[in-house]
Amino acid sequence: MTDITANVIVSMPSQLFTMARSFKAVANGKIYIGKIDTDPVNPENQIQVYVENEDGSHVPVSQPIIINAAGYPVYNGQIAKFVTVQGHSMAVYDAYGAQQFYFPNVLKYDPDQLRQELASDRGATLSLSQIATSYGLDFSLGGVWREGALSNVDNWWWYNNKIYTGGSGTLPSSPALPWYEVTVADYISVAQFFPITGDPAADNSASFNAAAAVALSAGKRLFVPAGTYYVKSPVDLTIGTVDLFGDGVEKSFIIAGSGFTGETVVNMYYETDSIRRSTSISHVTVDGNNIANYACRIQYVHLGRTHNCRFINGVVANFYTINDWLNTYDCCSFVPAPNRGVH
């Protein structure tokens, strides 16, 4: 096959294939080679790999490439030099089928500096083991997002340089609810659950409430970044102690959309006073849009704080509060109102 210009070596890029969390050889492991930024395990993404002989000739080989007990890639049992004709992604699996490494684009890495890259802050983008460490995740539960793969709520998946978790069942072609993006921040952002959109026809209620539930379970705050969020049912903060905060009253807007059902846009109205709750909300504008009875409705919230917020356009009142003790309200606006600012 003399017409092949094969000048890209298929390599770790280091010479020996070792385990992600030790220097042991990936004995009896497998190597998959594919198009850049794709999952090379999927046959549709794989590219042709060749063995380069001593005389310079090339023999096409099938995938996966086998790693011997010493950690070297072999062809018919013999250590060989494998090459391709283009840049590629690479996935390395151990003998038990666990992914040890994933490289979205091997040509982006200097072989002599790979070990330093893996140890650096950006090393999380180079291997799933480093990603797991960086994000505080269980390495054994991770993998590269692959449509049709089976997932449970504890699994996490690498997709387009981001981590997603939270869903169960087979993976769709791309992440969507209930899967959401994992971050290392001390808050959960609603932007992790859906694109920010100012479309009045959009309904972000389910995504808002999913974000609140994750924030509660993770012990993190719930962040509403700058944007306009239309909802058609209440943003429910009665699930527990949730601290919702935005980018500012002129930047973060939660608005009742057309067809809104329910009493209030943001709901902190507990039906029973069984425990003391300190739910808080700050730096947002909540707009009843002359559709919802209230922009915000609160009951049995104690030791909470409402700070730097604006509540507007509730049909009955902008803000309704009853049976609350020792709460703090500061730098808030409750006007204009069709009827009452505060009830």
From TrEMBL:
Domain spans labelled Rhamnogalacturonase A/B/Epimerase-like pectate lyase: 194-295
Domain Bacteriophage P22 tailspike N-terminal: 1-113
SUPFAM superfamilies per record: Head-binding domain of phage P22 tailspike protein, Pectin lyase-like
Entry protein name: Uncharacterized protein
Organism: Escherichia coli
